[in-house]
Amino acid sequence: MVRSKECFKCKAVKPLEQFYKHSAMADGHLNKCIECTKSDAKQHREKNLDRIREYDRERAKTSSRIRHAIEVSKLEMAYDEIKDRKGRMIDGVFVKEADL
Q1: Mean pLDDT score across all residues of the chain
Q2: d(CA 27, CA 21)
Q3: How many CB atoms are closer than 10 A to CB 30?
Q4: How many CB atoms are located within 10 Å of the residue 73 CB?
Q5: Which residues contact 30 (CB under 8 A, 6 or more apart)?
Q6: Which end of the chain has less Cβ packing within 10 Å, N or C?
């Protein structure tokens, strides 16, 4: 079984653990090492930053994102309301300290 492979980008032979998994590849790993993949992603982001930011702004306006933000807000408000309560769980039910 092959335990290492050559990165097509930097040409270095590295262990498989240094390659992202990819189910479509014959050996189950991408042909570019993690280091080169991250470098390419960083360069792409720097080169296209304005376009990426505009995409992110538009994506944030989608109904599913808005619904998610509302749900997170509701959860935060509920947590803020109960976070300082004192008590303990008994048989899966929270019992206030005053009722113990």
Answers
A1: 94
A2: 9
A3: 18
A4: 10
A5: 19, 20, 21, 22, 37
A6: N
Per-residue confidence band for 93, with pLDDT thresholds at 50, 70 and 90? very high
Give the span between the Cα atoms of 82 and 11, in whole angstroms.
Answer: 56
In total, the chain counts a number of residues equal to 100
CA distance 26 to 11: 19
Name every residue whose Cβ is closer than 8 Å to that of residue 94 and which is 6 or more positions away in sequence: 85, 87, 88
Please, which residues have CB within 8 angstroms of residue 72's CB and are 6 or more apart in sequence? Answer: none
Q: Is 91 left (phi over 0), alpha (psi -120 to 50) or beta?
A: left
Amino acid at 47: K
Which pTM does this prediction carry?
A: 0.62
Place of tokens 């960083």: 42
Whole-number Å distance between alpha carbons of 29 and 14:
12
